[in-house]
């Protein structure tokens, strides 16, 4: 019965909200892929660059662990992560399309890892290395909802790639400019694993970019992981840096 | 002392050649362990323990690695110095200092990379067994982290060409001998062609040498969904160059000669090694790794039974002073602790929590599928934030009296210690 009601009511709600006036209507009228690209623009610039990311894991008010990573991004589907300060310092993590490998400093063999294998606390490998949504997800459903009094678009993003970190993301973006506000993150199994709050932005060179994001554990809400994007610098690496066999030989691009 | 001076000189020279940033790491472990022995086929009346001077313990060891790495002047170099002090069965300490890795790497262009020196190459996809690791030193599996008893690399010149999704590596391997004069012996050529296709890692490997027939192998690895990874390896070689107990040779001389003979080195048969395994991550971060391993060069069940019959006969006559060396010979030859095992078919499973917290644990089980004997290896770790990890682990040998692991003199090993990383 409830399912039937939803089938009838949800499209009606969507139609009504899409007819709402002003800037929100303009935003939702754009094609889905353009909107995701615009949402991504708050996290990442186009092209090749390095994002220095600090991750802090908190349990209640206690700082449990911190880590520092350099994330080298090349286009929408390649990224190389080097752990600068972490319990596995020197660890290298490589994402290429659907593939992901890790090389620990003490070992000589990159091993394949699966998207759910954790890196630190509530931050998965994908959380660190996959910065954009456009390449991995598409808008499956949308509606409107206020978050803290701010009119938002509520987008249900469905994974389009097997390597996507999450199966679904329920993303709330400001209706006025598509700036991410918060998200609920679901595994492929459908489990609601984490929630994210995009809680600080900075303005640099006329662009507004995400400066801090907090991820909350759904099962243990006292646990949270804070991502701070400290610095974004243009860095172009040769193709071999994105070949898993080069991880063993990798010449540090920062030295 | 002379070796230490040579190593120190190498370090200073490499350091002087690299004015750029140098990363330095120092890690290792101190541990102590006790063994429980049992009367078994290879230890009748505890004779092996008595004659070979084995002790229950505790026996201690200290091992440390200093790892120095630098990128400077478009050169990359790395030096791993391994030092250890190990208390032997007699209680005496044996100290050793060795170069685990020392190589110089130059990126000749955006595609070509040249490396010269001693390095460890791991080309396989398996976690426990690697039939296609043709350019790797024998793996030392005593420690899952491989930080205390690290393998020493092989001396080589390696040239590798990279593209975005493939690579082609040529490794000219040789053994560097320094006694008397410096020279390179036993040259071998190892090749690997790697390609990532259909989101699958595929590698074709080959090894050519003067002493043995070529080894050709293939390995692959692929992730399915968000939790499962499947990998496999396959290698084939004509003839077996492994030594087998002389009891398997019907025409063996009754006295004299070696106990172990490589009598299959010209038999013209093809010997296959294969591996099929997976890793699966359960919710909560519990990792399950399972691998089936077949080694065609291993003892068949009938060969094992022949050997057991021989040992039984030998046990009946064991009393004199020759008993000790005879037992030692058998145990050393069987290499019951050897990573590749003695027989042909094995299944290994282990579960561990992925190390994101203070408490880490792991429990593994290696099963010989021919005789259903096995080894359990549980481990518990307590990780402190300052780089120290306390560990406690055990090896428990189970099986019928005639099985590979049931016949082993040790029934349990319990060891604990402290790993450090500075």
Topology:
The complex is a heterodimer of chains A (255) and B (422).
Chain A lengths: L1 H17 L3 H7 L3 H9 L7 E12 L2 E13 L3 E8 L6 E5 L2 E5 L7 E2 L5 E3 L2 E2 H5 L7 E11 L2 E10 L8 E7 L5 E7 L5 E13 L2 E11 L5 E12 L21
Antiparallel strand pairs in A: 1-2, 1-15, 2-3, 3-4, 4-5, 5-6, 7-8, 9-10, 10-11, 11-12, 12-13, 13-14, 14-15
Chain B lengths: L1 H15 L5 E16 L9 H6 L6 E14 L2 E13 L5 E15 L4 E8 L34 E9 L3 E12 L5 E15 L2 E10 L5 E10 L3 E11 L5 E2 L14 E2 L8 E13 L3 E10 L5 H16 L6 H12 L10 E9 L5 E10 L5 E10 L4 E11 L11 E12 L1
Antiparallel strand pairs in B: 1-2, 1-20, 2-3, 3-4, 4-5, 5-6, 6-7, 7-8, 8-9, 9-10, 10-11, 11-14, 12-13, 14-15, 15-16, 16-17, 17-18, 18-19, 19-20
Overview of the molecule:
The complex is a heterodimer of chains A (255) and B (422). Chain A has 4 helices and 15 strands. The longest helix of chain A has 17 residues, at 2-18. Chain A has a domain at 2-42 and 132-233: Lipoprotein localisation LolA/LolB/LppX (outer membrane lipoprotein receptor (LolB), chain A, Clam). In chain A, the strands form 2 sheets. Chain A has a 13-stranded antiparallel beta sheet with strand order 6-5-4-3-2-1-15-14-13-12-11-10-9. Chain A is mainly beta and 255 residues long. Chain A is globular. Chain B has one domain (2-421): Porin (Beta Barrel). Helix content of chain B is 12%, strand content 50%. In chain B, the strands form 2 sheets. Chain B has an 18-stranded antiparallel β-barrel. Chain B has a two-stranded antiparallel ribbon with strand order 12-13. Chain B is globular, with a radius of gyration of 23 Å.
């Amino acid at each position: 019965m409830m399912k039937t009601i939803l089938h009838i009511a949800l499209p009606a709600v969507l139609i009504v909200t899409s007819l709402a006036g002003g800037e929100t209507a303009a935003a939702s009228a754009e094609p889905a892929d353009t909107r995701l690209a615009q949402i991504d623009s708050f996290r990442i610039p186009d092209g090749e660059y390095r994002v220095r990311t600090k991750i802090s894991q908190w349990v209640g008010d206690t700082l449990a662990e911190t880590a520092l990573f350099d994330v080298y991004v090349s286009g929408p589907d390649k990224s190389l992560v080097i752990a600068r300060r972490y319990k596995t310092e020197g660890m290298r993590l490589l994402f290429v399309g659907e593939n992901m490998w890790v090389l620990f400093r003490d070992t000589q063999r990159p091993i394949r890892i699966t998207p759910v294998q954790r890196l630190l606390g509530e931050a998965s490998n994908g959380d660190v290395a996959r910065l954009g949504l456009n390449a991995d997800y598409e808008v499956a459903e949308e509606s409107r909802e206020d978050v803290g009094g701010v009119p938002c678009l509520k987008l249900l993003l469905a994974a389009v790639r097997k390597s996507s970190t999450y199966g679904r993301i329920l993303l709330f973006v400001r209706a006025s400019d598509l700036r991410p506000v918060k998200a609920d993150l679901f595994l492929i199994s459908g489990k609601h694993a984490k929630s994210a709050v995009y809680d600080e932005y900075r303005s640099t060179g006329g662009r507004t970019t995400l400066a801090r994001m907090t991820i909350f554990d759904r099962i243990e809400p006292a646990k949270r992981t804070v991502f701070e994007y400290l610095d974004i610098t243009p860095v172009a690496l040769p193709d071999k840096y994105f070949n898993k066999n080069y991880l063993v030989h990798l010449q540090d691009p920062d030295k | 002392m002379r070796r230490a001076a040579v190593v120190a000189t190498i370090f200073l020279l490499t350091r002087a050649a690299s004015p750029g940033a140098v990363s330095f790491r120092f890690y290792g472990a101190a541990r102590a362990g006790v063994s429980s022995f049992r009367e078994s086929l290879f230890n009748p009346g505890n004779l092996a323990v008595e004659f070979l001077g084995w002790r229950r313990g505790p026996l201690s060891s200290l091992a440390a690695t200093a790892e120095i790495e630098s990128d400077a002047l478009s050169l990359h170099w790395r030096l791993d110095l391994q030092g250890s002090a190990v208390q032997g069965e007699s209680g005496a300490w044996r100290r050793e200092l060795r170069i685990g890795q020392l190589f110089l790497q130059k990126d000749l262009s955006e595609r070509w990379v040249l490396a010269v020196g001693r390095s460890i190459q791991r080309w396989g996809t398996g976690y426990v067994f690697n039939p296609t690791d043709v350019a790797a030193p024998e793996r030392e599996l005593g420690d899952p982290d491989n930080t205390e008893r690290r393998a020493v690399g092989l001396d080589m010149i390696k040239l590798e060409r990279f593209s975005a999704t493939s690579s082609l590596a040529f490794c000219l391997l040789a053994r560097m001998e320094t006694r008397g004069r410096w020279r390179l012996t036993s040259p071998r050529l190892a090749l690997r062609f790697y390609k990532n296709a259909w989101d699958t890692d595929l590698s074709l490997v080959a090894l050519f040498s003067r002493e043995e027939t070529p080894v050709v192998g293939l390995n692959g690895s692929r992730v399915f969904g968000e939790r499962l990874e499947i990998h496999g390896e396959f290698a084939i070689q004509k003839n077996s160059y492994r030594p087998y107990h002389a009891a398997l040779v019907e025409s063996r001389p009754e006295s004299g000669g070696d106990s172990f003979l490589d009598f299959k080195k010209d038999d013209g048969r093809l010997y296959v090694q294969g591996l099929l395994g997976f890793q699966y991550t359960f919710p909560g971060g519990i990792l399950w790794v399972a691998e089936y391993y077949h080694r065609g060069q291993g003892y068949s069940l009938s060969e094992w039974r022949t050997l057991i019959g021989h040992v039984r006969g030998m046990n009946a006559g064991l009393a004199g002073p020759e008993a000790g060396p005879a037992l030692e010979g058998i145990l050393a030859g069987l290499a019951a602790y050897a990573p590749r095992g003695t027989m042909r078919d094995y299944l290994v499973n282990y579960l561990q929590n992925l190390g994101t917290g203070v408490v880490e644990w792991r429990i593994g089980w290696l099963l010989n599928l021919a005789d259903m004997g096995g080894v359990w290896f549980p481990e518990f770790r307590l990780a402190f934030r300052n780089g120290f990890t306390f560990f406690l682990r055990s090896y428990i040998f189970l099986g019928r009296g005639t099985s590979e692991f049931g016949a082993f003199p040790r029934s349990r090993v319990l060891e604990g210690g402290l790993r450090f990383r500075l």
